[in-house]
Design a protein that fits this description.
The complex is a heterotrimer of chains A (about 190), B (about 425) and C (about 850). Chain A has about 190 residues and is of the alpha+beta class. Chain A is about 35% helix and about 10% strand. In chain A, strand 3 and strand 4 form a beta hairpin. In chain A, about 50% of the residues are buried. With about 425 residues, chain B is of the alpha/beta class. Helix content of chain B is about 40%, strand content about 10%. In chain B, helix 14 runs parallel beside helix 17. The longest helix of chain B has 24 residues. The radius of gyration of chain B is 22 Å and the shape is globular. With about 850 residues, chain C is an alpha/beta fold. Chain C has a seven-stranded mixed β-sheet with strand order 15-14-27-26-25-16-17, sandwiched between helices. A six-stranded mixed barrel of chain C has the order 31-35-32-34-33-36. Chain C starts with a helix and ends with a strand. The N terminus of chain C is likely disordered. Classes of the chains: A alpha+beta (about 190), B alpha/beta (about 425), C alpha/beta (about 850). Chains in contact: A-B, A-C, B-C. At the A-C interface, helix 3 and helix 4 of A face strand 8 of C. The structure holds flavin mononucleotide (FMN), iron/sulfur cluster and FE2/S2 (inorganic) cluster. The site of iron/sulfur cluster (SF4) has 15 residues of chain B, from helix 14 and helix 16.
């Protein structure tokens, strides 16, 4: 709740906090619940329908429980060229799940995803948005094993960033409010040439 | 041939993301210098540098900064770190390895243009970058580089780290603003909304790419002329390219514009080191998935805006994806088209319906259910998204995403038509019931 | 080019004789030059120029989004021709447009083909079939046979998104019209785009339906058959509908199209009237045709009789009879009353439902023929007729014009005045109109208000006086819940305000009308303040203008101002001023009323004092009802019932809150032998031996124009010809008596004292209630919420009660039990109960005659 307040305080317009708050909700519950969306609607003063409209637009927000570990295997063009399809196939075979579904132990789900910006490390994947580069079938099996026996530790699904931004009260410059139509303090009165 | 690195100069230093390491290597000097100059003077340095935006459109940053209407306040800075264009892998590195450089770039930009608040919009999937930048920002606040009365001056600005949530289209600047306002990331029609005039919350807003920001400290510290002295006539300074695909040594390289050619960067030993297993090159994407493909005959084109544009493609997002002789071009083409179909925001009819239709036709062809008429159909549907299928593309859509799906089809069908036909004749022989897809 | 054009126009400017060039921006459409007003959207400008550009997402009353891409045309602004969405482009000087070029056609064909690939093409079973822009444009622009062999997008077939609207997402083309309407027009963004790209759909939040009072408009603006209205689904095909334009009888006078098939009204559609409703309608009105078509409509006159159906004056049933029998009884009764106790022993309550012409006919019958002034169209829930008649009137346009200020001192427009809320909301949200609220609770407009003060019932007069008067002394201490600082803020806002329009009505049925009058009085003191009466009954403004109120005569004039003039015109007028509804019921209750006429009135259900109404009906010798239905009063007490024709079945005209007169037109014939009210009046007059001088609606209108100080020149022909209606007075005719001028109503009383244990009672109204009409509309009857007392969470926790629990409300007069609803819009210190909600009659609590009513809340 304190974090939510922090987030809200950083935007001149409350609605801008919608996506960060959805992340926060997903971090708490592993996915975005209807209750969470209703709560966010109150916080940012819009309707739940508007929150859902935004939420459902973005890939990362899941509105039903997913595997504790979501393995996103990149099938963007660079990874495609270096065997992403084979890797996905291997994953499906060994885990006995199809893309978008969860293993029986509810631990792992796999998904083929678009380019995750690690093209020079292809083929690559993310576990809950943590990277693994130049993945071989063996590497994949090792990863899954590690996740299962806990020797590989990855924050649970929803945990976006461990380190968060903190803006200390005394250091904050404060939001630039939309209404106040005044130039910033350092701006020369003569419009500084612009 | 070694050139001076501008934005990747600290990449070998594995602690560069720590503030003291950054300071020790000349960090935040540009900021101190700027505070002794007027905003206009700082802006002029960037103008002189004629730094082209690194996000894809390649618009001169200094000029864009000048578009803010006078006497309309506040003005905002939104830094575009949504890097999602397939093949592109540079902004994430800049954010993870040298976050303070980006922060300093943002500060300088805010100072120069009078931007009262900065939002650093980073792609949601980049957890590590998020952490590195958050940490860097916390350090910078503590050290008094960011926030109220920066370094004791009357320059005050907050930099807010904002999380994306997974949508390529949000990289488009007006969609980025919509998303930052808490909405679905659907582009606005330009005109009437040019962000510099009517942007975030309807206020003047500068949108710049992460790599663009990374160049600003150098320009301010060493002067616009020093920057302009590097590079080519119409592309000053350096550019970071990610070379991926079937190469021996895929990697991210900062090269000086103009002096390096595609052959150098793809084949050169101090770069990507040539095609794997001694194979020959079949095609390559010169500037991200949206760009029309290049082939062997284009290898000697220098990495420089004008020549590449004239040759019928673009440097775009600095993503070079190489395909060797064994590549299945129908699959490659489908892969790229599928990307755009999946990432369409759904606002315009031609993109929402058209890109998906194209993807499904290609999927059907790959599934061995192609029809001879499909090839002309592919072109005609493409026509409805990008009339004339020309370069630079014309569009029936609001933003260029729709037409981007046309580039790979136009390229592949023109050059590798036989491969498509092969799939189709194959399926003809296999007499598959019509529409059984 | 530009310079030459300018030079020419200047030259012509000098040469006054030379023809001026048409005003506006010159541009070229398909080779021909036209002129458009600056800033006009290209798509509209081209339509004006006769070149219609197909469109799906564009709607002239909503912000353009340029999504569907159907309106792409080739435009050349000097940089060579290029495809541009004409819905996002304003006409500019010298612009060259080609709406028929190859490129244009190809682009439009392309978009259409793409729109159709996922469309089910189930036109034969689609309500929209025959009036569907998608279907039409496919015929006229589209390619033939689809080349799309893949499987179409699938969604669950129609899902209800509200109680009245269904959504078929397979037919939807994602034009963003309904969703924009919900957000931009209704201010209820409860439907929204969900998901992305090819999977995008319109939907609501789970378990949170699109419960907007205006949801029906989305059906009207949907360019395909994706949205359908429950009351209309599968009822008819557009080609066997025929239609006529009319005016809906609500205080706004919304312009509507009535569509019918085989003498059955099947649909009302909003008409885009610039002056009034901008094509929008409230669902309550849109779907009210269900009541018109209801099988409980009266088809024959009824008289008292026995259970075998035989007429007998002391029978306790109502039995069918003929008009001549019924009218004979009526006339006998009127003559007896006159002979025994004089004309004042006859009284007429109601008439707000009627057309202007019927109201005039009844006013003349009562005042000119029978000779009684005991006539009142309102039921003690409005404002005194003479006050309304004498208010300086404003217009909606003036109120909503940029720079103006609106003061709200009435019930919640969103609940009571439908499209006025829509116009005001737009004015505040888009055009910077300053709204100042002086209401006991928050309203549907509070979010858009510049200032919103919670004025405790009883204080409104004092608050209004304090903020309008120059002397700051009156603002030194708080008035009830309005702090001194707030008072200063309000005063400052008014002092600095542009033109002021006051929406004046009753903020609570529990307050004495005098309080509202005091407040009006204060604002009437400001020079440039004008008023819009915030009265909610159908054609109540017409009723007042036609003289259906004590002391009034047609044309906002009075007995003493115009008695002699009307005596000339009518033969006679009442000798003395009469009683209002409260007075009439009081008189009736004490045996002083022999014949009580209920002109579409239901005092038992509507009059604030049900006990008094009951006594009156029991005691009056004879009760005559003229009504389309048997309402509770009719059932309880009517001796003679005359079946009246209702909206859709009669010709005539309507008067809205501006005093705007617009035509009402007949589309179907009344059920059985039901007759227009004016005909009944005329018939009774004739049987009383007086000819009122008209035998048709036109003749009545002309007579009104001939005698009324207000309606000079507003004759039948003029009314019929006016597209946006006529705002009276058109001209002042010196030869006619003067109309009411505002007369000072005297200084405000001291606000009633208030003890901190009790709560001020607010009795408000909601869009849906148990009223006769709503009750006869199956589609919306169920929407009236069950009766409850609403308090905010602060008070709830103070009382230690929570939502849903049962409490006892007690006033000095009575006490009732009801459930609690938590509503943050309710002010502290007040308890609010809606009038006429199912299962709860709050009226017995009201201390009629007292300025306010205080109640105590105890848990049971
Ligand atoms: C479909 C689409 C996707 C885009 N994605 C990105 C992106 O991921 N990162 C980026 O910096 N710019 C992206 N752009 C370009 C931005 O719209 C904008 O031009 C750029 O951020 C401006 O910054 P610059 O001038 O510094 O290049 C994209 C444009 C389009 C049309
Ligand atoms: S072209 Fe595609 S992505 Fe761009 S706005 Fe239109 S629908 Fe959205
Ligand atoms: S009407 Fe212009 S894009 Fe839809």
């Amino acid at each position: 709740m304190r974090i939510a307040a922090d987030i809200l305080s950083r935007y001149p317009v409350k609605k801008s906090a919608t996506i960060p708050l959805l992340h926060l909700a997903q971090e708490q519950d592993g996915y975005v619940t209807d209750e969470a969306m209703e709560h966010i609607a109150e916080l940012v003063e819009i309707t739940p329908a508007e929150v859902l409209g935004t939420c459902s637009f973005y890939e990362m927000f899941k509105r039903a429980p997913v595997g504790e570990y979501r393995i996103n295997i990149c099938h963007g063009i660079a990874c495609h060229l270096l065997g992403a399809d084979d890797l996905i196939h291997h994953a499906e075979e060994t885990l006995g799940v199809r893309q978008g579904t969860v293993t029986n132990d509810g631990k792992i789900s796999i998904e083929g995803v678009e380019c995750i910006a690690a093209c020079t490390e292809a083929p690559c994947l993310q576990v809950n948005y943590r990277y693994m580069n130049k993945v071989t079938n063996e590497g994949f099996d090792a990863l899954v094993g590690g996740l299962r026996d806990g020797s590989v530790s990855v924050p649970k699904h929803g945990t976006l960033a461990i380190a968060r931004q903190q803006i200390p009260e005394d250091k904050a410059a404060g939001n630039a409010m939309v209404e106040e139509n005044t130039p910033p303090a350092w701006w020369p009165t003569d419009e500084g040439g612009d | 041939m070694t050139i001076e690195m501008i934005v990747t100069k600290r990449f070998d230093n594995l602690n560069a993301h720590e503030i003291d390491e950054y300071e020790a290597t000349g960090g935040y000097q540009a900021l101190r210098k700027a505070l002794t100059m007027t905003p206009a003077e700082v802006h002029d340095e960037v103008r002189t540098a004629s730094l082209l935006g690194r996000g894809g459109a390649g618009f001169p940053a200094g000029v864009k900064w000048g578009f803010c209407p006078p006497n309309v306040w506040p003005r905002y800075l939104v830094v575009n770190g949504d890097e999602s264009e397939p093949g592109t892998y540079k902004d994430r590195q800049l954010l993870e390895r040298d976050p303070h450089q980006i922060i300093e770039g943002c500060l300088l930009t805010c100072y120069a243009v009078g931007l009262s608040q900065c939002f650093l919009y980073i792609r949601g999937e980049m957890a590590h970058a998020q952490e590195r930048v958050a940490r860097a920002l916390n350090q910078a606040y503590a050290a008094g580089y960011v926030g109220k009365n920066i370094l004791g001056s009357d320059f005050s600005v907050d930099i807010v780290l904002h999380w994306g949530a997974g949508a390529y289209i949000v990289g488009e600047e007006t969609a980025l603003i919509e998303s930052l306002e808490g909405n679905r990331g659907m582009p606005r029609l330009k005109p009437p909304f040019f962000p510099a005039a009517v942007g975030l919350y309807g206020k003047p807003t500068i949108v710049n790419n992460v790599e663009t920001m990374a160049n600003i400290p150098f320009i301010v510290e060493r002067g616009g002329d020093a920057f302009a002295a590097m590079g080519a006539e119409n592309s000053k300074g350096t550019r970071v390219f990610a070379v991926s695909g079937h190469v021996n040594n895929p990697g991210v390289f900062e090269v000086e514009f103009g002096t390096t050619t595609f052959r150098d960067i793809i084949m050169g030993d101090d770069y990507a080191g040539g095609i794997r297993d001694g194979k020959s090159i079949k095609a390559y994407i010169p500037g991200g998935a949206s760009a029309p493909w290049f082939y062997e005959e284009h290898l000697d084109i220098p990495l420089e805006k004008t020549t590449v544009d004239q040759a019928g493609s673009m440097l775009g997002s600095g993503a070079i994806v190489v395909m060797d002789e064994d590549t299945d071009m129908v699959k490659a083409c489908h892969n790229v088209v599928r990307f755009f179909a999946r990432e369409s925001c759904g606002k315009c009819t031609p993109c929402r319906e058209g890109t998906t239709w194209l993807e499904r036709i290609l999927a059907r062809i790959l599934a061995g259910q192609g029809r001879p008429s499909d090839l002309s159909l592919l072109m005609e549907v493409s026509e409805n998204i990008s009339p004339g299928i020309a370069w630079p593309p014309r569009q029936t859509t609001i933003c260029p995403l729709g037409p981007s799906a046309v580039s790979p089809i136009a390229s592949a069908l023109e050059r590798f038509r036989d491969e498509f036909e092969a799939y189709i004749t194959l399926s003809d022989r296999r007499v598959i019931p019509v529409g059984a897809a | 080019m530009t310079d030459i054009a300018d030079a020419e126009s200047e030259a012509e400017g000098v040469e006054a004789t030379e023809p001026e060039p048409p005003p506006g921006v010159p541009f070229t459409v398909n080779g021909e030059q036209f002129y458009a007003e600056p800033g006009r959207m290209l798509i509209d400008a081209c339509e004006d120029a006769g070149a219609y550009i197909p469109r799906f997402c564009y709607h002239p009353r909503m912000k353009p989004v340029g999504m569907c891409r159907m309106c792409l045309v080739e435009v050349d602004t000097g940089r060579g021709p290029g495809l541009q969405p004409s819905c996002m482009l304003t006409v500019s000087e010298g612009m060259v447009v080609d709406t028929e070029s190859e490129a244009t056609k190809k682009a439009q064909d392309g978009v259409l083909e793409l729109l159709l690939i996922n469309h089910p093409l189930d036109c034969p079973v689609c309500d929209k079939g025959g009036e569907c822009p998608l279907q039409d444009q496919t015929m006229s622009y589209g390619p033939g046979e689809s080349r799309f062999v893949e499987e179409k997008r699938h969604f669950e077939k129609p899902i209800p998104i509200s109680d009245t609207v269904y959504l078929d997402r397979e037919r939807c083309i994602l034009c963003d019209r309904c969703t924009r309407f919900a957000k931009e027009v209704a201010g209820d963004p409860l439907i929204h785009f969900m998901d992305r790209g090819n999977q995008t759909q319109v939907n609501t939040f789970p378990e949170d339906p699109f419960s907007s009072y205006f949801s029906g408009n989305t059906v009207q603006i949907c360019p395909v058959g994706a949205l359908t209205a429950k009351p209309y689904r599968f009822k008819a095909r557009p080609w066997d509908l025929n239609e006529i334009e009319s005016t809906y009888p609500n205080p706004m006078g919304d312009r509507v199209t009535i569509q019918s098939s085989r003498n059955e009204v099947l649909r009302y559609l909003g008409v885009d009237s610039d002056a009034v409703n901008w094509s929008w309608l409230a669902d309550r009105d849109r779907f009210s045709f269900e009541a018109t078509m209801h099988d409980e409509r009266l088809t024959t006159p009824l008289v008292r009789g026995d259970s075998l159906g035989n007429a007998s004056d002391d029978g306790d049933e109502l039995v069918a009879t003929t008009w001549s029998v019924a009218l004979t009884k009526v006339v006998e009764a009127l003559e007896d009353a006159n002979n025994n106790a004089g004309p004042a022993s006859v009284a007429v309550i109601g008439g707000a439902r009627l057309t202007n012409e019927s109201q005039y006919a009844w006013a003349r019958l009562a005042k000119g023929v029978i000779g009684t002034d005991n006539v009142d169209a309102q039921l003690g829930d409005g404002l005194p007729g003479d006050v309304v008649a004498s208010l300086p009137r404003g217009t909606i346009e003036r109120a909503c014009a940029p720079g103006s200020t609106v003061v709200l001192m009435s019930g919640d427009p969103k609940e009571e005045l439908g499209t006025l809320y829509i116009r005001l909301r737009h004015a505040c949200a888009e055009d910077g109109v300053k709204l100042i609220e002086l209401t006991p609770n928050e309203t549907g407009l509070t979010r858009y208000a510049a200032l919103s003060a919670r004025v405790r019932p009883g204080d409104i007069g004092a608050v209004a006086a304090a903020i309008t008067s120059g002397d700051t002394a009156s603002r030194e201490k708080a008035i009830g819940s309005v702090s001194s600082a707030e008072l200063d803020e309000l005063a400052a806002a008014l002092a600095g305000a542009g033109p002021i329009t006051v929406i004046a009505g009753r903020t609570s049925l529990a307050d004495h009308a005098a309080l509202s009058v005091e407040a009006i009085n204060a604002f009437a003191g400001l020079d440039d303040a004008v008023f819009l009466p915030g009265l909610r009954r159908g054609n109540v403004n017409g009723a007042i203008d036609m003289g259906l109120a004590p002391e009034l005569l047609p044309g906002r004039t009075s007995l003493d101002a115009a008695g002699s003039w009307f005596a000339e015109q009518w033969g006679s007028v009442p000798a003395a001023p009469g009683l209002d509804t409260a007075g009439i019921l009081g008189a009736a209750a004490t045996g002083r009323i022999a014949v009580l006429v209920l002109l579409g009135a239901d005092p038992l259900a509507d009059f604030p004092d049900p006990e008094l109404a009951q006594q009156a009906l029991d005691t009056a010798d004879l009760v005559i009802a003229v009504d389309p239905f048997i309402n509770s009063s009719v059932a309880a007490a009517a001796d003679i019932v005359l079946p009246a024709a209702s909206f859709g079945e009669v010709d005539g005209s309507h008067t809205n809150l501006e005093g705007r007169i617009s035509p009402i037109r007949q589309k179907v014939t009344p059920p059985g032998t039901a007759r227009p009210d004016w005909m009944i009046a005329a018939e009774i007059a004739l049987r009383l031996g007086k000819d009122m001088g008209f035998a048709s609606v036109e003749e009545i209108a002309d007579q009104i124009a001939a005698v009324s100080p207000l309606h000079t020149d507003a004759d039948a022909a003029a009314i019929d010809a006016a597209i946006d209606g006529l705002v009276v007075p058109l001209v002042e005719d010196p030869s006619r008596p003067t109309r009411f001028a505002w007369r000072d109503q005297g200084a405000p009383e001291e606000p009633a004292s208030y003890d901190s244990y009790s709560y001020r009672l607010v009795v408000d109204r909601t869009m849906y209630d148990a009223g006769t009409q709503t009750a006869h509309c199956p589609s919306i009857a169920g929407l009236a919420p069950d009766g409850a007392v609403r308090i905010n969470s602060h008070e709830a926790s103070r009382l230690g009660i929570d939502a849903g629990s049962t409490v006892r409300l007690s006033s000095k007069r009575a006490s009732i039990e009801c459930t609690v609803r938590i509503d943050e819009r309710i002010a502290r210190g007040t308890a609010t109960v809606a009038h006429n909600h199912p299962g709860l009659d709050v009226r017995s609590l009201i201390e009629v005659g007292e300025p306010v009513t205080d109640v105590r809340i105890e848990t049971v």
